[in-house]
Amino acid sequence: MVLKDTQAVIGSVGLVPSVIPWGVIDELRPPTMPLHYQTSPEFGLFWGILPDYWGNGYATEAGKAFISWIFDTLDAQRVVATTEHDNRNSQRVMQKLGMAVYTNVHKKPFWFEVLGVLANPK
Ligand SMILES: CC(C)(COP(=O)(O)OP(=O)(O)OC[C@H]1O[C@@H](n2cnc3c(N)ncnc32)[C@H](O)[C@@H]1OP(=O)(O)O)[C@@H](O)C(=O)NCCC(=O)NCCS
Hints:
CATH topology: Aminopeptidase
Oligomer: single chain
Bound molecules: coenzyme A
Distance between the termini: 27 Å
Largest sheet: 5 strands, mixed
């Protein structure tokens, strides 16, 4: 990610394979189905901005452009993003990108805390 006027590098947004245990999100699991830990691979987004540039909407702007490219070019069914319970800034970026944001209220898996999901509208 670079600023248009100065070309200064301010951060990055990208794509990683993301392993999602959907069955631990209570809202997404059918009521009759018990808690389970099966996973599926998903198109996962990451974003990071140098602290001096936080709060200018840059992660959201880059995330929006990148998601459009992923949907249009890769025809991904959806994209996801994950973060920790206390990373409110990243959760706010998820919300501003229009993602549904879910919390894993269970203790396991320890590495899976907050999930953002955005479906391809096409
Ligand atoms: C998460 C991160 C990428 C957000 O980048 P950003 O360009 O600041 O994102 P935005 O400008 O869209 O701001 C998102 C929220 O951050 C908060 N924020 C954090 N620092 C801020 C600041 N200095 N000024 C204003 N808002 C700030 C605000 O709540 C903002 O929401 P708002 O627009 O409704 O006020 C950035 O904080 C970061 O790089 N954090 C460290 C790396 C990280 O945690 N990455 C995600 C790993 S899962």
